[in-house]
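Customer ticket, subject: "Can you confirm the structure for Ras-related protein Rab-31 isoform X2?"

Message body: Hello, I'm evaluating your service for our small team and ran a test protein. I'd like someone to confirm that this is what the system normally returns, since I don't have a reference to compare against.
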Amino acid sequence: MMAIRELKVCLLGDTGVGKSSIVCRFVQDHFDHNISPTIGASFMTKTVPCGNELHKFLIWDTAGQERFHSLAPMYYRGSAAAVIVYDITKQDSFHTLKKWVKELKEHGPENIVMAIAGNKCDLSDIRSCGLNSGLQAWRQAPLLTEPSPQLWMSFLRLVL
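Agent reply: Thanks for trying us out. I re-ran your input and got the following:
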């Protein structure tokens, strides 16, 4: 029998950046163009074989609206990883990610792994945030990727 390792992961970022789409694609292998905004947070799990053990991801998909920001510590407390998502077509969402990195460094779990995901790379023809901007942010959070839930560049790169 394989050992099961539970990993709590939370997704943070502005509303509309694609956090729910990333989670839905990872957990259900499904992409929906019409996902409704998350209210508060949603929770999903997915178990993935990795070597001689199973990794059970406990995924908290947080709401991006400012009015829910104060609830975020409840979801990232005890997390092994946080994925901070921005939309490469929305410059404002990139600026917000810097606030999340700062908050996690000051108030998050001591050993939390932070990943920055520049989402919606399938819309690169209308990109407003250059990859160089992402690389500068990477200096604060050591993992950077540009997934697209529609094209599905592996979520596992973010969390394993």
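A couple of notes from the result: Strands lie at 3-12, 41-50, 53-62, 81-87, 113-119, 143-145. The chain has one domain: 3-159. Feel free to reply with more questions.
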